[in-house]
């Protein structure tokens, strides 16, 4: 497959490369370059912005479980305060049904090859994602591609980076595409039951994704994760 015209992004150290124009057949392009990442050291990413800045990923945040426990405690305290001022919030179905932090969701059974699952899932990206450019990012693992490519969103990126690395180990995820403040991951080992799916959904909730906080009831969102091979995040 011929590499489309593109350029290296400015910056120190190994730099990501980005195509000048959106690519045709993004799923095939992504899969072709993904298959050659061992030779090139470059991980593919489908990206919706033509111009963006590159920056190396920071060190992995330690104490992820403690960080999420503190974030959940802060959210619960905030919610308890505001629901006293808005009776409609008291029974909202958008709120996760946990009083205390339940701990990280347990790893799923390793039932598929993560890279094969990624090549299948990339074909299921929604057409609404729009035209996408190809990014080739020098990274040691899929979870580090976003940081290397300089992608940002209105979320705690340090927490998200740590979660991406943890999800990669627990659920065989791979980063597929980032379009604006939307992100898609493939999932090789999704939860098989609603119990662990609820705990995964709580981890998603603590990234601030608007898919739950504004529109989708928590239980409906958690149920969609059971057997689901594609995770979407949106920070509006």
TrEMBL record:
Pfam family membership, one: DUF4253
Highest taxon above the source species: Bacteria
Organism field: Actinomadura parmotrematis
InterPro entries, sorted: DUF4253
Protein name: DUF4253 domain-containing protein
Domain (DUF4253): residue spans on this chain: 134-236
């Amino acid at each position: 497959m011929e590499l489309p015209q593109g350029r290296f992004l400015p910056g120190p150290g190994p730099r990501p490369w980005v195509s000048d124009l959106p690519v045709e057949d993004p799923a095939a392009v992504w899969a072709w370059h993904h298959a050659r990442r061992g030779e090139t050291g470059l991980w593919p990413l489908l990206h919706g912005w033509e111009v963006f800045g590159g920056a190396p990923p920071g060190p992995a945040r330690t104490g992820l479980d403690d960080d999420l426990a503190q974030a959940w405690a802060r959210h619960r305290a905030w919610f308890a305060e505001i629901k006293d001022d808005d009776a409609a919030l008291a029974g909202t179905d958008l709120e996760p049904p946990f009083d205390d932090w339940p701990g990280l969701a347990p790893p799923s059974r390793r039932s598929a090859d993560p890279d094969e699952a990624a090549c299948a899932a990339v074909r299921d990206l929604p057409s609404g994602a729009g035209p996408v450019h190809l990014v080739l990012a020098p990274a040691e693992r899929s979870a580090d591609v976003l940081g290397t490519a300089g992608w940002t969103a209105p979320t705690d990126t340090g927490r998200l980076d740590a979660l991406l690395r943890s999800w990669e180990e627990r659920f065989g995820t791979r980063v597929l595409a980032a379009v604006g403040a939307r992100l898609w991951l493939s999932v090789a080992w999704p939860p098989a039951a609603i119990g662990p799916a609820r705990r995964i959904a709580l981890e998603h909730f603590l990234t601030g994704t608007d898919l739950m906080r504004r529109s989708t009831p928590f239980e409906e969102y958690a149920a969609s994760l059971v057997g689901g091979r594609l995770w979407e995040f949106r920070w509006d």
